[in-house]
């Protein structure tokens, strides 16, 4: 069954896309929820006309999405979580947690446009933020233990190594 989507549905398609779905999914969920309409010949014609009229508005929407994506360039999230002795987190780090951390950095992102697997162990993962169907940003997410020493401690270790080198050269 062909459906014209009326809104973005992550994992299926974006607004004004024509997608093939199983008839039960279209009839029982997408159409009654107002998320799509049957892609008949007249509906396709109307969609083409609407896209022509909204071309400028869509270009502005894409430019805004690119501007938001530019804010996230080089952003890395470090999330501190309670961790067991085996390195497994109590609970999980999910899209809501990532959205909260971005909000703390002054970047407002709706958790519904973030896709990632829930993180249940200490380590690094990646979250994808879908601003527009052509604009996606991948943000690295590091989960560290609450009682783990801060990464600054590694820099302190390097400093004494540099001091011992001149002494060895003097001998």
From TrEMBL:
GO biological process: translation
UniProt KW keywords: Coiled coil, Ribonucleoprotein, Ribosomal protein, RNA-binding, rRNA-binding
Segments forming domain Ribosomal protein L9: 13-40
PROSITE patterns per record: RIBOSOMAL_L9 (PS00651)
Keyword Coiled coil: yes
GO MF entry, a single one: structural constituent of ribosome
GO cellular component, one term: ribosome
SUPFAM superfamilies assigned: L9 N-domain-like (SSF55658), Ribosomal protein L9 C-domain (SSF55653)
Coiled-coil parts of chain: 44-71
Keyword rRNA-binding attached: yes
Pfam families: Ribosomal_L9_C (PF03948), Ribosomal_L9_N (PF01281)
Entry's family note: Belongs to the bacterial ribosomal protein bL9 family.
NCBIfam families according to UniProt: L9
Functional description taken from the UniProt entry: Binds to the 23S rRNA.
Name under which the protein is recorded: Large ribosomal subunit protein bL9
Gene transcribed to yield this protein: rplI
């Amino acid at each position: 069954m062909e459906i014209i989507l009326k809104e973005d549905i992550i994992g299926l398609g974006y607004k004004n896309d024509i997608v093939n779905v199983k008839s039960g999914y279209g009839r029982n969920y997408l159409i009654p929820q107002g998320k799509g309409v049957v892609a008949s010949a007249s509906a396709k014609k109307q969609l083409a006309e609407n896209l022509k009229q909204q071309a400028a508005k869509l270009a502005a929407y894409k430019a805004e999405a690119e501007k938001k994506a530019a804010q996230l360039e080089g952003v890395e999230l470090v999330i501190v979580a309670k961790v067991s002795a085996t390195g497994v987190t109590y609970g999980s780090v999910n899209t809501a947690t990532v959205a909260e951390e971005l909000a703390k950095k002054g970047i407002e992102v709706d958790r519904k446009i973030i896709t990632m697997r829930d993180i249940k162990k200490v380590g690094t993962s990646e979250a994808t933020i879908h601003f527009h169907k052509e604009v996606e940003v991948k943000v690295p997410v590091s989960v560290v233990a609450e009682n783990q020493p801060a990464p600054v401690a590694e820099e302190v270790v390097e400093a004494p190594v540099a001091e011992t080198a001149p002494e060895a050269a003097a001998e």
